[in-house]
């Protein structure tokens, strides 16, 4: 008959080495990672092209600066409430 002490012992699972790019072994994460890089590169290229076009058409640094401020307004408006809610939640504890 089997020893009851053996049934309560658990097997140790050997750990795989954890490195910087270990998560890239997962196919879905790899696709997300590559898609995010390509999407961000596209946004950067769009920003450079738009700035170049506006400056080429107008020759005005003021209009170029205004364009960049207007493009950042939605992002800034969204970040403010998030920052405030984070401040409130951390000070409430």
Describe it for me?
- The chain is mainly alpha-helical and 93 residues long.
- The chain has one domain (24-91).
- The protein is 73% helix and 0% strand.
- It has 3 helices and no strands.
- The protein has helices at 4-8, 27-58, 61-91.
- Helix 2 packs antiparallel against helix 3 (61-91).
- The model has no long low-confidence stretch (mean pLDDT 81).
Return the string of H and E elements. HHH
The counted number of beta strands is 0
Flag low-confidence runs.
none
Largest sheet features:
none
Q: How many separate domains make up the residues?
A: 1
**Considering DSSP H and I runs of 4 or more, what fraction of the residues is helical?**
over 70%
Strand content: under 5%
Radius of gyration over alpha carbons? 26 Å
Structural class: mainly alpha
User: Which of globular, elongated, flat, extended, rod-shaped describes the shape?
Assistant: elongated
Question: What's the topology here?
Answer:
Layout lengths: L3 H5 L18 H32 L2 H31 L2
Q: Which key phrases capture this entry?
A:
single chain, 93 residues, mainly alpha, 0% strand
Give a brief description.
The chain is mainly alpha-helical and 93 residues long. The protein is built from three helices and no strands.
